[in-house]
Amino acid sequence: MEILWILGIPLFGALLLAFLGHRRWAPELNAVLSLATLAATVWLTVRIIAHGPMVVVDEMFFVDSFNIFLIALTAFVGFTTALFSRPYMRIETQRGKLTPGLLRLYYSMYQLFIFTMLLALSTNNLGILWVAMEAATLATVLQVSLYRTPSSVEAAWKYFILCGVGIAQALFGTILVYFAAEKVLGAGGTALLWTHLNQVKTHLEPTVLSLAFVFLLVGYGTKVGLVPLHSWLPDAHAEGPTPISAVLSGLLLNVALYAVVRSKILVDGALGTHFAGNLLMGFGILSVTVASFFLLRQKDIKRLFAYSSIEHMGLATFAFGMGGSLATFAALLHMTVHSLTKSAIFFTVGHAVQKTGSQWIDGISGLVKQSPAIGWGLILGSLAILGMPPFGVFASEFLILTSTMHRQPWATPFLVVSFGVAFAAIFGKVQPMVFGESNHPRLPHPPSLLPVFVHLALVLMLGLYIPPYLATWYHQAAQLIR
Amino acid sequence: MASPFLGDLINLLAALLLLIAFAMLAQRRVLSLINLFAWQGLILAASTAVMAYSSHQHHLYYSALLTVLLKVLFLPWLLHRLIRQLNVKWDVETLINIPTTMLTGLGLVVFAFNLATPISQLATTVAKSTLGIALASVLLSFLMMITRRKAIPQVIGFLAMENGLFLAATSATYGMPMVVELGIALDVLVGAVILGIFFFQIREAFDSLDLKHMEQLREK
């Protein structure tokens, strides 16, 4: 029943905020609703830890060790982003960028977006997974164009069309899976249910499934931002309001990768070969390499970190493709720490941009002198995302790199060079923004930096020590995916 | 088992659908494009209904009804309304290279049939040979989206692609489970409404619905 609360609260919140989103206390209401969702998630998590995987509500929802930690992560980052968006959106409103109507749209769509992601993660039906992924695009597309500037409208249009076309491929892939499954499970409702499919995966028609996987990978891969399907991602991240950049990068990409990995499990079962893994490795390594070189030429700070997201999602995709329990464990850890770190970075970037009035890297300087918390948050976050010890990204990247050396040695130089290039690019650009002189005015509302340091503290903790129940989860999930 | 006549009828309808996809590819006028889209929806609904009759799959009648409501009535109405409000009713797009586009389209059809053959052989439905046509019309709509430079034709291409996918679902498997189909219909509906909002945003931002103005965000 917890699952109904988890989905019901944000859905109800979306309706509520569609009417009340322009009120003075709407940001608080948004945060309270997100906190309630988080509380329901914690409740569910405790249940899953105690009783193991479960299938509920007439087999409509399914929670196992793979999706529960993503559900918890989604609700958590959803809550902290709501906290961050409180002062952020107040400042934007005060600067006359938003009207009451747009605020209602923003808050309502924020809740709806969280709802669609939680639905995508918890549904047992591959068709509903598709519907929820498409709905997540629909919920965010009007937020990307929230400021109504030409470039934001352009970014939103690209986002809509590219992801729409991509996701249409995934629908065809889903149809093919259903077609193959129907032969084994019979027509009707059960043939798209993950729990049933997983049981009969070895009996599914291999030719159909391999074709289906190509379509599913292209479709959901567009949303993961895999090169060469990534071109919507930097635009959408750079032009939308920063809280949306944070949830797109920290959550939506994860959910899309989750869909890809779920498909991979089925295909691996049906084919018994490494076909799906090879495709994932190819796309993954291409994304890591291309994105790291694109980092060098970025002049816009939000685009810079958007390309960094492509790089990291590529790395996780590569690790899932490599397979094996160690690499899969590392990939899951990487999804977690990337999500926490990247959203923390976007929180600081959001305030830094508001403070200096510029999104250009050249226009930002001396953050540490002016507002130490923002400055240190940004530099620490950047070091964390670059994989500096002792942060969690170091642990996951180290694990991925060592298992690459063992299992796919050819890929090691690509990864090492990419990490080096990314370090040079990001550190070289962030350092002058953080240090140096500046004389920017104070922000009219105190920035909300608690989420930044909570996220970074968690990432630090995951680098030093992974709590036993979390490690068990990762291990169980790695067993499942492997 | 269904009579061969009904199977032929379904094939005929699917062929008409493909023909319309080609016609859309070459159509310059926005208004005619919308009408073609409505016709495509009607043919899709008809073939779904024939399939429902021949296979006794009653839930397919609901899908056919849903198709009529959404793709023959609501979406064309919405698009007509939009082009009236946006004053682009008589817009004519200059299409370059129609012959090349057509030839590429033919190539895509051949490719689609090749891709679909191994799957069609496994299909047990009345309409198994239409799977290739479905895939071909998906690819043709995709081609249309690539070659168009204006917002409304691009969107019609997008919606036509969904028609092709729907045909694929009914021809290969007698349609997806109802809950999924309703979800897809909801997404298409909401998507179309959002696109409608977008047309106004695009025109406000760029003073035109021509997407050639959209080049600020290119990676330098």
Short recap of the structure:
The complex is a heterodimer of chains A (482) and B (220). Chain A has 482 residues and is an all-alpha fold. Helices cover 79% and strands 1% of the residues of chain A.
Q: Which structural traits does this protein have?
A:
heterodimer; A: 482 residues; two-stranded antiparallel sheet; 2 strands; B: 220 residues; mainly alpha
Describe this structure in words.
The complex is a heterodimer of chains A (about 475) and B (about 220). Chain A is mainly α and about 475 residues long. Helices cover about 80% and strands about 0% of the residues of chain A. Chain A has helices spanning about 1-20, 25-50, 65-95, 100-120, 125-145, 150-185, 195-200, 205-225, 230-240, 240-270, 275-295, 300-320, 325-355, 365-370, 370-385, 390-405, 410-435, 450-465, 470-480; strands spanning about 55, 60-65. In chain A, strands 1-2 form a two-stranded antiparallel sheet. In chain A, a hairpin with a 4-residue loop joins strand 1 and strand 2. The longest helix of chain A is centred in the middle third of the chain and has 36 residues, at about 150-185. The radius of gyration of chain A is 21 Å and the shape is globular. In chain B, about 80% of the residues lie in helices and about 0% in strands. In chain B, helix 2 packs antiparallel against helix 3 and helix 6 runs antiparallel to helix 7. At the A-B interface, helix 5, helix 6, helix 8 and helix 9 of A face helix 4, helix 5, helix 6 and helix 7 of B.
Report the largest inter-chain contact.
Answer: A-B, 51 and 47 residues
Integer average pLDDT of chain A: 90
Beta percentage of chain A is: under 5%
Overall mean confidence score, pLDDT of chain B:
85
Oligomer: heterodimer
Broad shape of chain A: globular
Give the topology.
The complex is a heterodimer of chains A (482) and B (220).
Chain A: H1 2-20, H2 26-51, E1 54-56, E2 61-63, H3 65-94, H4 100-122, H5 126-144, H6 150-185, H7 194-200, H8 206-224, H9 232-239, H10 242-271, H11 275-296, H12 301-322, H13 325-356, H14 367-370, H15 372-385, H16 392-407, H17 412-434, H18 450-464, H19 468-481
Antiparallel strand pairs in A: 1-2
Chain B: H1 4-26, H2 30-55, H3 59-85, H4 98-122, H5 130-147, H6 151-173, H7 178-206
Helix pairs in contact in B: 1-2, 1-5, 2-3, 2-6, 3-7, 4-5, 5-6, 6-7
